[in-house]
């Protein structure tokens, strides 16, 4: 494996994929053609994901294709935002007003108590309000932010 040589779990695979997506996505590299690189990365990712899913009882509420598709669309947005991936949920904060219509089109909902946009599906309903630190601790978190509007996405 060229891009995912040290993968030990599905979560580890996802984290590496997200970093590679931010770094090599064609929309983040206007000066060079990275389409071929992203195709290689996607192929390896899909192969490894199938291996992990077949070797475990792993069940998820959001398909990998759906998550990848939404994540690709969010990366294309040229806004001063922070993207946070928690489990199979995508959370967005920052200057989202100019892109709120697009976020709604992608299926994001405004979480007023958290002051963030969220995308994902719940496996079960939960009446308890959980703060973001609890959610991050329980499911793990990867944060990406765009420091200026035309800059590439930086990994924190």
Explain this structure:
40% of the residues lie in helices and 16% in strands. It has a six-stranded antiparallel β-sheet. It has helices at 10-24, 35-54, 64-76, 100-105, 132-139; strands at residues 81-86, 89-94, 109-111, 116-119, 142-145, 154-155. It is globular and about 40 Å long. It folds into two domains: 1-59, Helix Hairpins (Orthogonal Bundle); 79-156, no CATH class. By secondary structure, it is of the alpha+beta class. The chain is built from five helices and six strands, in the order H-H-H-E-E-H-E-E-H-E-E. Strand 1 (81-86) and strand 2 (89-94) form a beta hairpin.
Task: Jot down its keywords.
16% strand, disordered C terminus, globular, 156 residues, alpha+beta, six-stranded antiparallel β-sheet, Helix Hairpins, 2 domains
Q: Give the averaged pLDDT, no decimals.
A: 80
> Structural class of the helix and strand makeup?
alpha+beta
Q: List the uncertain runs.
A: 148-156
| SSE topology string | HHHEEHEEHEE
Number of domains: 2
Distance linking N and C termini:
26 Å
| Strands, count | 6
What characterizes the major β-sheet?
A: 6 strands, antiparallel
- Number of helical segments with 4 or more residues: 5
Q: How many whole angstroms does the radius of gyration measure?
A: 16 Å
In percent terms, what proportion of residues is strand?
15-25%
The strand line-up of the biggest sheet is: 3-4-2-1-5-6
Tell me, briefly, the overall form. globular
Instruction: Please bin the fraction of helical residues.
Output: 25-40%
